[in-house]
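> call design_seq(struct)
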């Protein structure tokens, strides 16, 4: 499995604003929004009940804060399943396109700093932003699972966790959906585009 932090330097100048300090009203408003999304998209989580998900969230306010940050950056998080072994509920970013406030970013901190040294300033990097939010980039398997629940990234693309052997050679991988199929591509880790962000996962 890829080590998301293996190439993150911690020196990012990410322009994405991450605020994990939410008020009681913001928490209640978010729970209301998540409930509506949950009930509108039951095909993503058949046999699960919102009341048990909500109880878990209220017991773990730090997770609710991460979901708030996912929402604030355009991820539209929703439950996509439950781990049978741990009982944890699994949230993915389920926005139709790659989260709009996490785009124009490199893959990780080292890649971002390469650009900064050349006088080019991306909007941050996926690995450091995910860490700040408290989530993990989707793996290829998770991304493909998401795509079975709907059609995502038909106009955009999303960075996903990159195996160390690829990253060590300067590359990173991303995915999208075109022509009715899911594609996995490679790019230099320091590349960044207005239509590419990343999708994350959160366990509660």
């Amino acid at each position: 499995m890829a080590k998301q932090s293996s190439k993150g330097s911690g020196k990012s100048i990410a322009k994405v604003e991450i605020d994990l300090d939410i008020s009681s009203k913001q928490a209640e408003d978010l729970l209301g929004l998540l409930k509506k999304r949950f009930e509108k998209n039951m095909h993503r989580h058949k046999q699960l009940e919102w009341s048990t998900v909500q109880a878990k969230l209220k017991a773990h306010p730090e997770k609710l804060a991460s979901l708030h940050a996912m929402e604030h950056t355009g991820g539209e998080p929703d439950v996509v399943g439950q781990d049978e072994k741990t009982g944890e509920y699994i949230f993915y970013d389920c926005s139709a396109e790659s989260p709009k406030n996490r785009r124009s970013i490199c893959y990780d901190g080292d890649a971002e700093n390469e650009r900064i040294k050349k006088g080019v300033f991306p909007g941050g990097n996926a690995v450091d932003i995910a860490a700040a939010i408290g989530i993990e980039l989707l793996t290829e398997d998770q991304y493909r699972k998401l795509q079975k629940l709907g059609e995502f990234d038909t106009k955009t693309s999303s960075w996903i966790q990159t195996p160390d052997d690829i990253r060590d050679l300067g590359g990173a991988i991303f995915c999208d959906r075109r022509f009715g199929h899911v594609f996995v591509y490679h790019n230099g880790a320091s590349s960044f585009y207005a239509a590419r962000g990343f999708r994350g996962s959160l366990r509660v």
